[in-house]
């Protein structure tokens, strides 16, 4: 019988001493030796307040500059008819992020390192290269958002973007985890400025309720255009960087399995906030532009702010610009951190917000370098900013399926997660999500490469044919069979105290031949699709 004890670093894969110790959250502290039960509402509330952070930051950070553009485009062009997509994405958001927080708490090892160790250098390198390229482009779009917000407010863009970059770098470079978390949660609270705009626009509540809970397509909308916008909503709501960020942040905050329930509450709070923000943007743009000349003619976030000023009042426009800047800052911080954490994982360099700059120079160099380069690009007079924004949405849609595949495999690896492995129902649901993401990715890639050929018939053929092929393949290969039995009797495992042993003590990852074939096919498609999309982007940039 083996019981792995969470408080014994020698028996777990905890990275180093920076990831062991007191939990010092923005709103409270849990001492390392405090292992007593949480009895009574007051004690539980104190624990929750100390744990709050990872779920809130990763979710609200996803309502970033790109999301502002996508959600307001949906509202301005199609009213509230696409609100239902947000309800459908709630279980996808929860399942994906719950799996990574579980991996972080149980393993003590970052997502990138787990992929390298369990699936080999090729798969690990490809995942990190994907992440690095996509994140670098995403950070540029965050500073585009800052520039648009500052421009609307009449403030100098150059100075404002530079000061914003310095502020985001300074918040991370203090070597104090709690100080960064307080900065990030202040920005999370700032995202609530979208709520008063909702009421200023006087949206019709009956239509909003109908749009939320009754799936529909916009009347008169071209199916190919609508599908591309739906894909953009999926890509901006469920992004690959979220997986890497939350797993590493949970580890950096020193959260262990005994606090899993509290971290799930934190995640749900984040999901509620992100859906409220997204729904508010769709609803108030739909209400403000309904029956106006601007309806159906989305330009960018600055155009939305100007329209809100004209149709909902000056304060609404100002609040929207402030919300855009706030969202861009938290997005820039979170996306940059996810990259720095992943690079630290891959190259085994010290990477923790508990460390001073002099103790983790590589970690902070990656973080600050990405911020500085992105800000400089936005301030460059001839940078193709519109093209970069479109590239982010396209690449996010193309690369997301692979990230979810690795997540599913890791959460079924009994050597890694032990008694915290996925249930059969969760595997079936996640498998269906992966199929949907792959089909959306195929549609998006085809629309970028062959825009003149993607029509309603082609889209329906891809969705219908792909679904049938996926179902046949899943049944034939047995990919969704019940996970392999544990090597130890789960009854002897203490779930709250179980941690993954050091990686060197684990045996090789066991994958079926069918799983390997599926991964090779998926990766082959992703390599080809990513290369073609990047070539297309470069060609357009040169032509412009």
Considering the chains and any ligands shown, give keywords for the structure.
544 residues, transmembrane, disordered N terminus, mainly alpha, Amino acid/polyamine transporter I, symport, Putative manganese transport protein, transmembrane helix, cadmium ion transmembrane transporter activity, 2 strands
Task: Please tell me about this protein's structure.
The protein is an all-alpha fold. The protein has a domain at about 45-380: Amino acid/polyamine transporter I. Helix content is about 70%, strand content about 0%. It has 21 helices and two strands. It has helices spanning about 40-50, 55-60, 65-80, 85-105, 110-120, 120-155, 155-170, 175-190, 195-200, 205-215, 225-235, 240-250, 260-290, 300-310, 315-345, 360-380, 385-410, 415, 425-450, 455-475, 515-544, and strands at about 25, 30. A two-stranded antiparallel ribbon has the order 1-2. A hairpin with a 2-residue loop joins strand 1 (about 25) and strand 2. Helix 19 runs antiparallel to helix 20. It is globular, with a radius of gyration of 23 Å. Mean pLDDT is about 85; it is low at about 1-10. Its main location: membrane. It holds the Pfam family Nramp. One of its GO terms (cellular component) is plasma membrane. GO terms for molecular function: cadmium ion transmembrane transporter activity; manganese ion transmembrane transporter activity; symporter activity.
